[in-house]
Amino acid sequence: MMALLQQPDIGRLIFEHTADSHIVELPFGLGEWHLPTGWTLFGIDVSPTRHVVFMGLAAICVFLSVMIAKRAIVRRHRENRAPGGFGTAIEAMVIFVRDDIVLPAMGHGGEKYLPYILTLFFFIMFCNFFGLLPWGATATGNIAVTAGLALISFVVIEVSGMIALGPKGYLKTIVMVPPGMTGIGAVAMAFILTPIEIIGKLVKPFALCLRLFANMTGGHFVILSLMGLIFIFASWLVAGASVLMILFMLSLELLVALLQAYIFALLTSVFIGMMLHEH
Amino acid sequence: MVHMLLQVQDAQTAVAVAKSTNALLGAGIGLGLAAIGAGIGVGLIGSRATEAIARQPQASGDIRGAMILTAALVEGVALVACVFALLFKILA
Hints:
The complex is a heterodimer of chains A (279) and B (92).
Chain A: H1 10-18, E1 23-26, E2 31-34, E3 40-41, E4 44-45, H2 50-79, H3 86-106, H4 114-132, H5 143-174, H6 184-233, H7 236-276
Antiparallel strand pairs in A: 1-2, 3-4
Chain B: H1 2-6, H2 11-55, H3 60-91
Helix pairs in contact in B: 2-3
């Protein structure tokens, strides 16, 4: 009993689901929303795409969740009730970011950078979660988005170093001389270590960008490939096994979504902390 | 791979096909090696973490947190190889 095997192009399917496009699929079969094309700014195409829409949604969700949480906590304090509910959950996450990510990495000067790290954490978390919903697209699965986040982190890290150390101290982090060497040895070490330091400064945000992008896209590739297996084999047994594997991969993806947001925020705070405490 | 070579008519498309075949082969082998590295790395992390928990069960919360964090960082390196393999596929 050979089923009629349709051979869909699995590669094209995977690519269409993970890559950016100008069409947003509305949920529950409501149709498609064709985004406007052709907006250009100084010759660069800035028309909104699906990932831009989902980034906007994630930003709105970050804003709304924090606003609603704030009002809920204020109301609970006023009514003298025990902690609980949505506001307390968001408060728990904020306290986790403050006490376990920012303050251990940056020490006493850390409160200034707490808003940025919090925004980073919540934004990346919401972006990743939107990718797991049906009809959702992962904005952080686009290397341009993660590159933008890494670029902003790079600027924050370097500017924090310039503010905390002063221009001369900041230059000492680039033209690095190991402590305790003088004379010709110092000049030789400076010649060797300066390119390494510069490359190190550039590679760290690049690794942040690639890590987030690869984790998000890789997970979706695996899930879509397993779904494609169902179409290739067209048998009930393979479909059952495949759906179980997809369930497992989706729960792993849930963990990875939270973990990658945590790691991006943690590494950014560690790099800022390293710049703040150079002396 | 053979059927692509059978379609070749002249030298230029032969070179192009050989380049794309070589690129994909390289990407596949590189990805496999990176997967071996990630497997060994995460296995080491897991083994040392369980050993540490067995030595001191009251520190198991801290150890579990450190283990998950380090595993994600090691996986990041293997996934960088994934990204470059994808780049090979797209470029050739």
